[in-house]
Specification:
With 351 residues, the protein is mainly α. Pfam families: Na_Ca_ex.
Length: 351
């Protein structure tokens, strides 16, 4: 359906009603792409499964960013990557994390959830390093004017991000896999036998083909829909930086649903892994990819955050550290993260 819609709408001026329909199909294509990536990941196993899923999500995020970059001009284009990545960090580390905690601790009055603090703390530390290097450091460098990086600095950031991401994936999937497994109510690790068997090879191969179709549909429909997105933001009298929030919300919708459902099943650690893992992939893969493509796009990337954004990022990291500092979490932890997310969304509308 996504490919057919793309063929019918490519290079056409669309009325409002058709634009809404295309937006719905675009969102459905994102969900479909992630679903098929998860099937392939379940078949190939770890650590390659995590890489496939992260690469698929990164292709979607980068595709949306590039299509919006090429369809507009001005300072908003330079900062679109920063706004999207920062939005992804705020949504994952506050929204996804907060919802999974509330879902995992709200089944009975006074119940607290158990997390694997070794893995949670390691994942959050990885987010802190990546966010600081790619979003905060460019704000204070002096070799380039403003919140930009020189070519050598951007290359260093890209290489460092990839190294950190690969190291985290190997740690999570191979070297210390038990640190990231969910715990039951008694604090014991839930064994792998509770997981479903991998899908058959035929199903996995079918998902590979459908994944490619879905990714093509997402990137193409993003190009078709980009004028409507920018026009809608302008018509609502919202800052152009809110486009980055829209992209992040769209890309992270599947992870949000999966984390909430995992929390409801009592697998709170799975929701935390999804939250921090999505943030790590968003920074560790998206920024290097855009850094490599920026010369071809003839766009200078503005990565440094503003003062307000830095305050929100520091608050998020501080609350996150306190959340994962022990094995038990309560509904208060989840509520605090959701309040920080609400502050981010409100300040994005009224900066």
């Amino acid at each position: 359906m996504g490919l057919v819609t793309l063929a019918l709408t490519w290079h056409r001026d669309l009325p409002v009603v058709i634009s809404v329909v295309v937006a719905i199909i675009l969102a459905a294509s994102v969900l479909s792409a992630v679903e098929h990536a998860e099937v392939v990941a379940a078949r190939v196993g770890e650590p390659f499964g995590s890489l496939i899923l992260a690469v698929a999500v990164t292709v979607i995020e980068v595709g949306l960013i590039i299509m919006l970059m090429t369809s507009s001009s001005g300072s908003e284009t330079q900062s679109l990557a920063r706004d999207t990545v920062f939005s992804a960090v705020m949504i994952t580390c506050n929204g996804i994390l907060g919802l999974s905690i509330l879902a995992g601790t709200g089944r009975r009055k006074g119940e607290s959830g158990r997390i694997n603090e070794e893995g949670s703390a390691a994942a959050l530390a990885t987010v802190v390093v990546l966010a600081a290097l790619t979003l905060v450091v460019p704000r204070f460098t002096t070799s380039a004017n403003g919140a930009f990086l020189t070519g050598s600095q951007l290359a260093f950031e890209a290489v460092a991000s990839i190294v950190v991401y690969v190291t985290f994936v190997m740690t999570q999937s191979v070297q210390h896999r038990d640190f990231f497994l969910p715990l039951n109510r008694k604090g014991n690790i839930i064994t792998a036998s509770a997981h479903a068997d991998p899908p058959p090879t035929k199903v996995a191969m079918m998902s590979v083909g459908l994944l490619v179709c879905a990714l093509i549909a997402v990137v193409g429909l993003a190009k078709v829909e980009s004028p409507a997105i920018e026009a809608g933001v302008a018509a609502a009298n919202l800052p152009q930086t809110f486009v980055g929030v829209i992209i992040a919300l769209l890309v992270l919708a599947p992870e949000t649903i999966a984390a909430y459902n995992a929390g409801k099943r009592g697998h709170l650690q799975v929701g935390i892994n999804l939250a921090f893992g999505s943030a790590i992939a968003s920074i560790g893969l998206t920024v290097p990819t855009l850094a490599a493509l920026s010369p071809l796009l003839d766009v200078q990337l503005e990565l440094g955050l503003g003062n307000l954004q830095i305050v929100l990022l520091i608050t998020t990291m501080a609350v996150g550290m306190l959340t994962v500092s022990g094995q038990r979490v309560t509904r208060l932890h989840g509520a605090l993260h959701l309040v920080v997310l609400a502050a981010f969304l409100f300040m994005s509308i009224v900066p």
